[in-house]
């Protein structure tokens, strides 16, 4: 950790370190969290299909925002799980509530993303066949 006194407006070194630590967090989550891997792969597939179906740019932006929200929520959920495990080593009803509610938040985001995906893709897929 370098000193935060004597700060310049932008320290490229600190910015580089921030990206590095953040990427380590993403890598850790990718390695240990199955849901994150599933959501990431689905996200790539969705964006590829959006290109193939030539979905308008504004709707693609909506997809990117929704996908980013789901993946970001997965990362926060993972951080919360680790924080709970750090503090609580035994069964605790409050730990259960924290983990379950955080998982519920991911679920809500994923559900919202699925609804948005259906609203964008279903009419196009329907038009392809009928
Ligand atoms: N210390 C605890 N006390 C009580 N219940 C717990 C505790 N730790 C985990 N649980 C329960 O087990 C569930 C799974 O917790 P765990 O930490 O294993 O998450 P996980 O299986 O890794 O979840 P995910 O697959 O989303 O990463 C929690 O949602 C919670 O209901």
UniProtKB/TrEMBL annotation:
GO terms for molecular function: ATP binding; kinase activity; metal ion binding. Pfam families: DAGK_prokar. The active site is at 74 (proton acceptor). GO terms for cellular component: plasma membrane. Gene3D superfamilies: 1.10.287.3610. Its cofactor is Mg(2+). Substrate binds at residues 14, 27-30, 74. Keywords: ATP-binding, Cell membrane, Kinase, Lipid biosynthesis, Lipid metabolism, Magnesium, Membrane, Metal-binding, Nucleotide-binding, Phospholipid biosynthesis, Phospholipid metabolism, Transferase, Transmembrane, Transmembrane helix. CDD domains: UDPK_IM_like. ATP binds at residues 14, 21, 33, 81, 99-100. One of its GO terms (biological process) is phospholipid biosynthetic process. This is Diacylglycerol kinase.
